Amino acid sequence: MGNISNIYRVEKLAPAIGAEIHGVDLAQGVDDALFGRIHDALMEHQVIFFRDQTIDIDQHVDLAKRFGKPLYSKKLKMYSEKYDCLSLLENDGSKIAVGSVWHTDNTDFEEPPMGSLLYCEVAPSVGGDTLWASMYAAYDALSKSTQEFLEKLTALHDNSNVRRRYSGKDVIPMSGTNVEAPSEHPVVHRHPVTGRKALFVNSNYTQRIVGVSDIESRHILQMLYEHCQRPEFQVRFRWRAGSLAIWDNRCTQHHALDDYKELRRMRRVQIAGSRIVL
Q1: Which residue, among 177, 182, 227, has the nearest Cα to 202 in the 3D structure?
Q2: Cα–Cα distance for residue pair 118/246, rounded to 1 Å
Q3: Spatial distance between the Cα atoms of 172 and 278, rounded to a whole number of angstroms
Q4: Domains in the chain, please, with CATH?
Q5: Which of 260, 3, 248, 257 shows the shortest CA–CA distance to 125?
Q6: For residue 234, what is the enclosing H or E element?
Q7: Is 105 a catalytic residue?
Q8: pLDDT for 90-121, tens place per residue?
Q9: Which of 48, 83, 171, 278 is deepest in the core (most CB within 10 A)?
Q10: How far apart (Å, rounded) are the C-alpha atoms in residues 152 and 187?
Q11: Is 45 a catalytic residue?
Q12: Residue 149: is it exposed, middle or buried by C-beta count within 10 angstroms (0-12/13-18/19+)?
């Protein structure tokens, strides 16, 4: 089993978000001590990366289970018949890439995912990077008066934008894309583990601010979307085969760049979350 002594170094990749963990072979197993260090690194850095890993689907799912209950994957193509929580994200650049806009995963759910584990099997020689942005940093950078204003607001989230974007013929195949009843979440929430406040709106799922006019809602959301995309809140990761990213969906957004023309093959497990509260 993996031992805590196997972690040689945690390398911070950007001031606001992101770290790479060196010296760990996840295929050797993850004991409680090692998992504690991995979990602590995730809570601190919001997204963590491992290079040069050779993990099969059983090891991938087993590691995901350490974080919580894997979510049944109903919207994306299944990776295998063995696990209904394992999604296949595969594209050669000929279709619109899943996740190629800034977003937080599935905020249309009443209980959005806690996070995800994404493993790269095949990477293009150039392109196909993913960017993550810290919603802690985005909240912290707002003026106190704006923070106080936003903390009083809630927003409606649904998957209508996703359904429109991915319903054409030149997109990754998806299922389960009917629009369901919207979910209402606070615009600012407090992370259940760290206690830090984070913004919780995104252009993929957030439809409107509750209790204000359409004009007010549109301008509030547009300001927040633009603000959340500031480069100083971001980290950029270049994929190689054998790379694994684990991110905390409760305090991040991410953007999968759609700039490649070679095969990019990934498998993903999402972890069940809880209600978003301030």
Answers
A1: 227
A2: 6
A3: 35
A4: 4-271 (3.60.130.10)
A5: 260
A6: strand 234-237
A7: yes
A8: 999 898 887 899 999 999 999 999 999 999 99
A9: 48
A10: 8
A11: no
A12: middle
